[in-house]
Design brief:
It is a single chain. The chain folds into three domains: 154 residues, FAD/NAD(P)-binding domain (3-Layer(bba) Sandwich); 114 residues, FAD/NAD(P)-binding domain (3-Layer(bba) Sandwich); 112 residues, FAD/NAD-linked reductase, C-terminal dimerisation domain (Enolase-like, domain 1, 2-Layer Sandwich). It is α/β, with parallel strands linked by helices and 483 residues long. The longest helix has 19 residues. The chain is built from 15 helices and 25 strands. Helix 2 packs parallel to helix 8, helix 3 packs antiparallel against helix 4 and helix 3 crosses helix 6. The protein is 31% helix and 22% strand.
């Protein structure tokens, strides 16, 4: 065989039990769990192992900003502190340290040591049973698509001419933007704008629609008040018209109540809703249906091709609600289906949704309108943190616990607004999984003088109607006769 013929020869097809396309956190979780059971796994990734660093870097930035704000607000607890000074170099080190542990867990060496074969390149389906990565064919028993989603830049005239950042660039910033203009009204945009403002940038937030449309209106109102109280410039319901380069950085022209409004800034940070990363997969050749929301899957996360699963932010159909928050849970369901042939079923209402701004918003289950449509006669129970002794002692009495339940006390939805809401929602995640009722949650003993006790008190308020029930009052009166 000549050298030319040898070079032209295609490599033999790989035939693993599972081929995972996409080495983000969810894809790696599935691959490592499968490898632990002795299953042969091929992991395909065209970019960085572990996925984008944006979400974790954003969280690290938000926590640093919260610490700075706590120093400013220490006077309410009787303390005097100097105004915080931001060190960009040390802040960057904090973000990098936060990312380091994840990087180690997602390293190519660790994955290879677990027996996972990593193939670098763009994957595309060549048939219903074959994926090609460059010229390498892969014929797996099962394929799992976990390519995630990426933000797409908006169709804004002049965007290419101005200094523009996205969330994945945060981990590499050596200096914070002096006057950042954040475009977007979703949870990520709000958290970023607030964090940059707290760290010394004169931030402006432009929300083309309303603020936090994915969360409860009353919860969004509390966040809006906090942002304005902290001095952040907020423009809601203002569509961006064009971006222009300026000597200082940029000008963003938006629509205002009485005409165009010009916002000056140094950097434009775009936080749009991520779009499924599936365009290059040639899904039609595999008989896989998809639309603008992502790959169409059923309640078992299986596509129209029974040998192919999809989960995470690239999944649409039955998995769309909360898909970007349920990666590890969905990975476990897919693995149970593939390895043990167990019937699995996703429950989008059991996936918590968290906005990491301050106050935080955490929710699980149905929103109020959806709960009302399902239950008809809806119980709406609310307990403010101003009535929780532990919250008052911490000087964090802003916010509330709001519960939605049907007439039988079955929990349909929960929203918590408070600093630390992402942790306070945890008992309700357990309750949703276990199918607990309000009465059962009211019987759970919470730590005394903790903010978590507000959840129990909200559940206990379901019994308030009983105190005025004439039949129950007569029964109590009758029993009193017996001592």
């Amino acid at each position: 065989m000549s050298d030319g013929t040898a070079k032209a020869a295609k490599p033999a097809a790989l035939t693993p039990d599972i081929c995972v396309v996409g080495a983000g956190a969810g894809g790696i979780a599935l691959a490592t769990a499968a490898a632990a059971f002795g299953v042969s796994v091929v992991l395909v990734e065209k970019d960085r192992l572990g996925g984008g660093s944006g979400p974790l870097a954003t969280r690290a930035l938000v926590e640093a900003a919260a610490a700075a704000q706590a120093m400013r607000a220490s006077g309410r607890l009787g303390l005097t502190a100097e105004a915080p000074q931001t060190s960009p170099a040390q802040l960057r080190d904090h973000i990098q340290r936060t990312l380091t542990a994840d990087t180690a867990n997602h390293s190519e060496e660790r994955l290879a040591a677990l027996g996972i074969r990593i193939i670098r390149g763009e994957a595309r389906f060549a048939s219903r049973s074959t994926i090609m990565v460059e010229n390498q064919p892969i014929k797996a028993r099962r394929f799992v698509i976990a390519t995630g989603a990426r933000p797409r830049p908006p169709a804004l005239p002049g965007l290419a001419t101005v200094p523009c950042l996205d969330v994945d660039a945060l981990s590499d910033l050596t200096r914070l933007p002096e006057r950042p203009v954040v475009l977007g009204g979703n949870a990520t945009a709000v958290a970023l704008a607030q964090a940059l403002h707290r760290l010394g940038g004169r931030a402006t937030l432009v929300a083309p629609e309303k603020l936090l449309p994915e969360h409860d209106d009353e919860a969004a109102t509390l966040v809006r008040r906090r942002l304005l109280r902290e001095g952040l410039a907020l423009h809601e319901g203002s569509e961006p018209i064009r971006a222009e380069r300026s000597r200082a950085g940029l000008r963003l022209v938006i629509s205002g109540p009485s005409g165009e409004v010009v916002i000056d800034g140094t950097h434009l940070l775009v936080s749009d809703v991520p779009q499924p990363e599936i365009a290059a997969l040639d899904l039609e050749l595999a008989g896989i249906r998809h639309d603008a929301t992502g790959i169409t899957v059923d309640k078992g996360l299986r596509t129209a091709n029974r040998h192919v699963y999809a989960f995470g932010a690239c999944a649409g159909g039955a998995a769309k609600a909360g898909a970007d928050q349920a990666g590890d849970d969905h990975a476990g369901l897919v693995l149970r289906s593939i390895l043990f042939r167990l019937p699995v079923r996703i429950e989008p209402t059991q996936v918590p949704r968290v906005a990491w701004c301050r106050p935080e918003i955490a929710a699980i289950g149905l929103a109020e309108d959806a709960a009302r449509a399902k239950a008809g006669a809806l119980q709406v129970l609310r307990w403010p943190f101003a009535e929780a002794a532990g919250a008052r002692a911490a000087g964090e009495a802003e916010g509330f616990v709001k519960l939605f339940a049907d007439r039988k006390g079955r929990i349909l939805g929960v929203t918590i607004v408070a600093d630390g809401a992402g942790e306070l929602i945890a008992p309700w995640c357990v309750a949703a999984k276990a199918g607990m009722t309000l009465a059962e949650m009211a019987d759970v003993v919470m730590p005394a003088l903790s903010r978590a006790d507000a959840s129990r008190r909200a559940a206990l308020s379901t019994h308030m109607a009983s105190t005025t029930d004439p039949r129950l009052r007569r029964l109590i009166g009758f029993l009193r006769r017996f001592g």
